[in-house]
Write a structure and sequence with these properties.
The complex is a heterodimer of chains A (432) and B (224). With 432 residues, chain A is an alpha+beta fold. Chain A has helices at 3-55, 123-171, 188-237, 244-274, 286-303, 322-338, 368-371, 388-398, and strands at residues 62-64, 70-75, 84-91, 96-109, 112-121, 282-285, 307-311, 317-320, 345-351, 354-360, 401-408, 411-418. In chain A, the strands form 3 sheets. Chain A has a 5-stranded antiparallel beta sheet. A 5-stranded mixed beta sheet of chain A has the order 7-9-10-12-11, with helices on one face. In chain A, strands 6-8 form a two-stranded antiparallel sheet. In chain B, helix 1 links the parallel strand 1 (2-6) and strand 2. Classes of the chains: A alpha+beta (432), B alpha/beta (224). At the A-B interface, helix 3, helix 4, helix 5 and helix 6 of A face helix 1, helix 7 and helix 8 of B.
Chain lengths: 432, 224
């Protein structure tokens, strides 16, 4: 839920509650005032009639005013009447029964006693009450609406810098060299937030660049001492006077040095890809590349008795760096070789500008979430450094290619295809 | 044969020189572009090994210089920079080969030999090792004037061993020589073994001599 909606809902609920309570109270207060008013009116009329009756005793036993609001009747003993009561009476003008306030009292006039009934229509006061109330209600409604829109407009305006900052953050990609800057908003809270964000992003950027440079420099610097270790050990291994035991020990050191240097090379390559240091681009026919690589590897597949099936009828070209294309294909093929089983299968096919390399292997599907991560070895191929697919994945990322994995009928399938939304930017040729 | 090794890392330089001197080459060392340039201009070499990243400049300038005064000298770049640009610009300037550090010494040796063969004898040199005669240009092997059928990989393997006679060749260096980057494949040592087994069998059948010697757990040696 949007913050604005949330605030608005709360605001409306509270305002509505306050207004309704105020409305109800107002209604009753208004009723009281009107009621008070009628009583006062009746009382003043009573005083006037009493005065009149005390001075002049009427001759008739019963007197009624023409509008039926005053009725004087002779009675023979004095009674205490309940002063006020409500009643319905027929109204001549309205031609219907309308509520009336009735005041009954007795008066002594000379020797006679009279009972006086005063009637006052409540219709007008009720009308008045209703008019005032509906006017108030309408006013409340208008105020409520006005407040709602004002609030909406204000918060929209107030949150505008926030959404601007948000879009800047959304468009920000770590590793991009251009620095991020926020416009000044003139609102101190947002300016404060923006300057904090700016500082944070600059720090992240700097750290990221430092880390990348460190990885690259470290791998590069490690390479030379490794070369020395390797060559020195190789020299020692030439020594024919060594015991077998010594051979074994030196061999172990030699093997580890080789592994280390391979690992290092791979890391260096990975950081170079991430740093986008491979700028040259040309159209690479992936199918042709795979064919030539396969010829080179023919023997390795044959020795493992792997049946290689290639069905690449269509030409698939990607715009990419030639060296990276070579590494991508090599990594995928050697992956298919490395994790294959004796007398296994390798199927390479292309369809709709996508290339799929499927190989038999262990009969358990790989964990996709970990497959392309660095150093995530899921098999026991000890020679594997766990970087091959991470490198392939990184290369694909660089060229808007998608590297997908799925497990189908005992075959591990890796497929490369272009990410759909950007596919128009890249030149793709199929169907010769 | 005289070789100039231009490499700033003293320890690596010494190892290379030591290995090559055992092969019978006369080696000279230089650790900087300045020293290298002096030697290039003063003396004549059969081959120059040059590192690209030197403390006082790029080895590429030395290649240019050498090409001017002694164009017949073979050039092999040894560089830690595994970048395509370095490789292509080096080869464009006239370098003959490119090796990425870290490399195996037998590999370097084999590349130098092959380069010198091409440069000095235009590849027409016959290599005679005991009963085996190799014609590198035609990629043919003759035993008692009879052609020995070898696969491409077996021939490469034989050339590698012959170039490094008497040396212990590790399984790793053999695998890398045959398959380059694919050598890290888990089973490549089995392939090395099977190739050597086949080559050995073919040679034993024709010559009656087993030229290969197993070095316990490490690799193989070609003995005369």
């Amino acid at each position: 839920m949007k913050l604005q909606t949330k605030i608005n809902i709360r605001f409306l609920v509270v305002t509505f509650l306050v207004f309704s309570i105020a409305g109800v109270l107002f209604y009753f207060a208004l009723g009281q005032v009107v009621d008070q008013n009628i009583r006062e009116m009746l009382k003043s009329r009573k005083a006037y009639i009493e005065l009149n009756l005390q001075q002049n005793t009427p001759s008739a036993d019963s007197i009624e005013s023409p509008d039926h609001t005053i009725l004087i009747q002779r009675i023979y003993s004095i009674k205490n009447y309940n002063l006020f009561s409500d009643t319905l009476a027929y109204d001549q003008e309205e031609k219907e029964l309308v509520p009336f306030r009735k005041m009954t009292f007795s008066v002594k006039s000379g020797e006679r006693f009279y009972k006086v009934i005063l009637l006052q229509s409540l219709l007008e006061s009720e009308d008045l009450q209703l008019i005032i109330f509906s006017f108030m209600a309408a006013l409340f409604g208008i105020v409520l609406l006005a407040l709602f829109f004002l609030n909406h407009w204000l918060s929209n305006k107030a949150w505008n810098p926030f959404f601007k900052s948000l879009s800047v953050l959304n468009n920000w990609k770590i590793g991009e060299t251009q620095s991020v800057s926020f416009d000044r908003t003139g609102i101190s809270e947002f300016d404060q937030l923006n300057s904090t964000l700016e500082k944070m992003m600059q720090k992240i950027q700097a750290d990221f660049v430092n880390l990348k440079e460190f990885t690259e420099n470290a791998s590069h610097e490690i390479q030379t001492p490794l070369a020395i270790i390797k060559s020195k050990l190789e020299m020692v291994l030439q020594d024919k006077t060594l015991h077998d035991q010594h051979y074994q020990r030196i061999r172990a050191a030699f093997e580890s040095a080789i592994r280390l240097s391979k690992l290092n090379e791979a890391l260096l390559l990975l950081s170079k890809i991430e740093n986008r240091q491979f700028v040259d681009m040309s159209e690479i026919d992936i199918c042709q590349l795979i064919q030539s690589r396969l010829e080179y590897l023919e023997e390795l597949f044959a020795l493992k008795q792997i049946e290689v099936t290639v069905s690449l009828e269509k030409q698939v070209t990607y715009m990419m760096n030639p060296l990276l294309a070579d590494i991508l294909v090599s990594n995928l093929l050697s992956n298919a070789l490395k994790h294959n089983i004796e007398k296994g299968q390798l199927i390479i096919s292309s369809e709709n500008q996508a290339i799929t390399i499927s190989n038999s292997g262990e009969v358990v599907p790989m964990d996709v979430s970990r497959l392309f991560r660095r150093f995530s070895k899921q098999s026991n191929a000890s020679e594997s450094n766990g970087l091959g697919l991470a490198i392939a994945h990184e290369i694909c990322n660089n060229y808007n290619l998608q590297l997908n994995y799925h497990y189908l009928n005992g075959m591990h399938c890796l497929s490369i295809k272009q990410k759909s939304q950007i596919s128009t930017n890249l030149h793709v040729n199929f169907d010769r | 044969m005289k070789i100039l090794v231009i490499e700033d890392e003293a320890a690596l330089c010494e190892t290379i020189v030591a290995y090559l001197e055992e092969e019978g080459y006369r080696c000279e060392q230089a650790g900087t572009v300045e020293l290298g340039s002096e030697k290039v201009n003063l003396y004549e070499y059969d081959c120059m090994l040059v590192d690209i990243g030197l403390p006082d400049g790029s080895g590429l300038s030395l290649i240019k210089e050498l090409k001017k005064c002694h164009p017949e000298t073979g050039i092999i770049i040894i560089s830690a920079k595994n970048s395509l640009e370095d490789k292509t610009s080096g080869l464009d300037l006239g370098a003959d080969d490119y090796l990425t550090k870290p490399f195996h010494l037998p590999e370097l040796n084999s590349r130098i030999k092959s380069l010198l063969r091409r440069r000095k004898f235009e590849g027409k040199q016959e290599l005679v090792i005991d009963k085996i005669t190799i014609l590198p240009e035609n990629r043919q092997v003759l035993i008692n004037a009879e052609l020995l059928q070898l696969t491409r990989k077996e021939f490469d393997l034989l050339m590698f061993f012959v170039s490094n006679r008497g040396r212990v060749l590790t399984k790793e260096s053999i695998a890398e020589h045959l398959w380059g980057d694919f050598a890290d494949s888990a089973d490549s040592f089995d392939f090395v073994y099977s190739h050597i087994k086949n080559l050995r069998r073919k040679l034993v059948e024709k010559t009656g001599i087993d030229y290969f010697q197993n070095v316990y757990g490490t690799g193989y040696t070609f003995i005369e």
